[in-house]
Input
Amino acid sequence: MDDLSRITSFLLKPVAQACKEFGLLEDGDRVAVAVSGGKDSRALLDLLLRYRKRVPFTYDLLALHVTGTPGGSPDLALRLERWFQALGVPYRLVPLALSPDEPRPRDCFRCSWNRRKALFTAAVEEGCHKLAFGHHADDAAVTALLNLLFGGRLETLAPSVEFFGGRVTVIRPLIYVPEKELARYGRASGFPEPPPCPYGERSHREQVRAFLRQFGREQRQIRANLWRAARK
Output
């Protein structure tokens, strides 16, 4: 068994755990997968394709990539198109949703809001009632701390949450997967990293992420403690 096969087998276990525990995937689902081009979203699409071969039901996948975001490039969209075609996955490139009088986003919150708006709109137009994001265990820990520090509440990312009266359900199949394992998967798969966002390094999210990295191996227990406390 090669390195990629070992990592894949290892990662499919927490993916299966999350899918079963939270009922993320069901027979007949049509799932839009948000693919930014980074290791997390690429791994998400790849693992959902592999997971589909292991379960006794079927679901359809559609890759969505939002173009025109800070740090994005036409080359990235072209590379992703080739990758989607090689995987045999239907896909759609979605322009960043901006009103005519709105300037290009220059902060993470506004950019994220516009990107999610574009993804939700495309998912509905394509008849997808589920939208999968590549948020992982470290994202959940960072979100819990951000909400505590800046919002005064201890909440984290929900594995599954409905929007628009249930028309679209966001799912997070990687919620139990540590970021470092996704990085290993990305390296073994040869996933190239897209250019970094020019505003991301200044964000509160990146500051909290850097803070957690200082704890080294203790991060695993910290993630577990934050998840348990925020999910009560």
